[in-house]
């Protein structure tokens, strides 16, 4: 990776870089028309200094052919063209959001090595043998099973944080987002031990903890402030905001809200 974590953290004020964005090269944006060029234009319009384009590479999909294939070369060509076009007003980093890397660690390593990405976000969207939480119908899953699945999620998330090439750990509270959308809830402290283990690993690995604003656009408040407080209590300071925009209009969305949360936890002293 050329775009070192420390550079990412120190070079830009926290609200001036969107570290997690998608273009139409992501399988779930194919129909959105959000080319790299358009995403960069949106970033300039939003007043950002930098954007990291982090299209989905779901490693289990690459291995099992679940989603449409990832067009590495054409995507790089368009991202580089955008980087060049906007170079006077925006720093453009070509990253990926790597999902389920631990399911196929050899393949994941090859993808990262061959892709020569500036930045790698690590994600867990589904646990081994289970479907993406996004597609899960929680109303049909019993409470005990929900608790077990989310516990399994945090275990796999911990494994992901151990991967040396991961720069940023994405949306730690991901399953809770969909649980709440289904009108259900669970106290995140049920998994406190697992979360502490994750946060310590993120800190020890010098990785960035992501504050993801996607849920706010769907009216879902997550216990991210609680997680951030735990992270801070163990000495964590590398926090970055990611809009997780899947449309141009969502670039840098709700950064003010996320910054308020960060300021609340860090007393306005971070970054
Ligand atoms: Zn994700
Ligand atoms: Zn994403």
Brief overview:
This protein is of the alpha/beta class and 271 residues long. Helices cover 41% and strands 14% of the residues.
Q: Can you give keywords for this protein?
A:
alpha/beta, single chain, binds zinc ion, 10 helices, 7 strands, TIM Barrel, 271 residues, seven-stranded parallel sheet
Distinct ligands: zinc ion
Q: Might you state the CATH topology name? A: TIM Barrel
Radius of gyration over alpha carbons? 17 Å
Run of helices and strands:
HEHEHHEHEHEHHEHEH
The percent range for strand residues is 5-15%
Q: State the helix count.
A: 10
Number of strands: 7
Strand line-up of the largest beta sheet: 1-2-3-4-5-6-7
Fraction in helix: 40-55%
Total domain units: 1
Distance between the termini: 22 Å
Give the CATH architecture: Alpha-Beta Barrel
Highest CATH level, the class: Alpha Beta
Low-confidence regions: none
Description of the structure:
With 271 residues, this protein is of the alpha/beta class. It has one domain: Metal-dependent hydrolases (TIM Barrel), CATH 3.20.20. It contains 10 helices and 7 strands. The protein has helices at residues 5-11, 36-45, 59-64, 72-85, 105-115, 143-161, 174-181, 192-204, 224-233, 255-266, and strands spanning 17-21, 50-58, 91-99, 119-123, 168-169, 208-212, 239-242. A 7-stranded parallel beta sheet has the order 1-2-3-4-5-6-7. It is globular and about 50 Å long. The chain binds zinc ion (2 copies).
